DNA sequence: GCACATAGTATCAAAAAGGGTACTGCAATG
DNA sequence: CATTGCAGTACCCTTTTTGATACTATGTGC
């Protein structure tokens, strides 16, 4: 994220982890990056890839990604505007992360946004807060 | 994981990425998970690991992680309360992601939360928006 | 003339997310 | 007796993020 919303780094070992996700959180960023892994895309192409993203949001996220140096934006001075977005080398270096994320999601999330149910061992009351 | 099983589903491929990220975003979640990778911790231990986290926030994030099945919470009915947090199997399966994140952060972030500067080739005006 | 497509902006609003501080109950410690 | 530590809660507030819509400019196609 462009504005270090994620904490001030006093640098416990988790810092770099946090910093890294800080750059790819945001509702659409990771997805945008993921799509860009496959190649350069134009604004409306991304829009069509990611249903439900409004132009405002897309611009927003793309700008932040650009500001963070993960994405490159190339404008063609044509009459029907043409703007291409692609990963920068830095963005491309994010590939392992994105793949790890996707791999995890594919195997642990039921494609509906929630983690798969882990069958509880033999709990009578799985939802209890275990209050003493 | 290249193809596992095709989710015969119209969700764009980025979905699982987004879902995965959705579970570990939040200002402190990834750091908490990261610390828990090393082993079980008690509430105040985590607090001490992550400077600047307020109890409210910590509870908050831990509860969300618990709700998402990534973290397990174990309460001991002792008099000075004792609560242990540890990764669930699902949370542990996040390890590759967390490590990828950390690896990326370590090599691409200057420990101050910003991506390392990529030395610009020979640009006189690095900040231009390239407006058509 | 009119609509369409491109790549966005502008303007408004609502909802999350994050944050601070004070406070709880109880036992052991000093 | 007062204090400390544990594991949080309660309350209230600010900031950030997300969102829908409508609107811009321009050239092409009908």
Automatic annotation (TrEMBL), chains A, B:
Region feature (Disordered): 112-132
CDD domains xref list: HTH_ARSR
Q: What PANTHER family does the annotation carry?
A: TRANSCRIPTIONAL REGULATOR, TRANSCRIPTIONAL REGULATOR, MARR FAMILY
Give the lineage: Bacteria, Pseudomonadati, Pseudomonadota, Alphaproteobacteria, Hyphomicrobiales
Entry keyword DNA-binding: yes
Q: Which residues form the HTH hxlR-type domain?
A: 15-113
User: What Gene Ontology molecular-function terms does this entry list?
Assistant: DNA binding
N-terminal signal peptide: none
Q: Which Pfam families match?
A: HxlR (PF01638)
Gene Ontology BP terms = regulation of DNA-templated transcription
Q: Which UniProt keywords apply?
A: DNA-binding, Transcription, Transcription regulation
The protein's name is Transcriptional regulator
């Amino acid at each position: 994220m462009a504005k270090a919303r994620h904490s001030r780094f006093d640098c416990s070992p988790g810092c770099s982890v946090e910093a890294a996700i800080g750059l790819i959180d945001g509702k659409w960023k990771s997805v945008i990056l993921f799509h860009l892994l496959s190649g350069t895309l134009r604004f409306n192409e991304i829009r069509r890839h990611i249903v439900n993203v409004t132009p405002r949001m897309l611009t927003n996220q793309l700008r932040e990604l650009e500001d963070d140096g993960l994405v490159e934006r190339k404008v063609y001075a044509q009459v029907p505007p043409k703007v291409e977005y692609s990963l920068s080398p830095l963005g491309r270096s994010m590939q392992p992360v994105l793949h790890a994320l996707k791999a995890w999601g594919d195997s642990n999330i039921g494609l509906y946004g929630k983690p798969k149910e882990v069958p509880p061992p033999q709990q009578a009351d799985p939802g209890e807060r275990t209050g003493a």
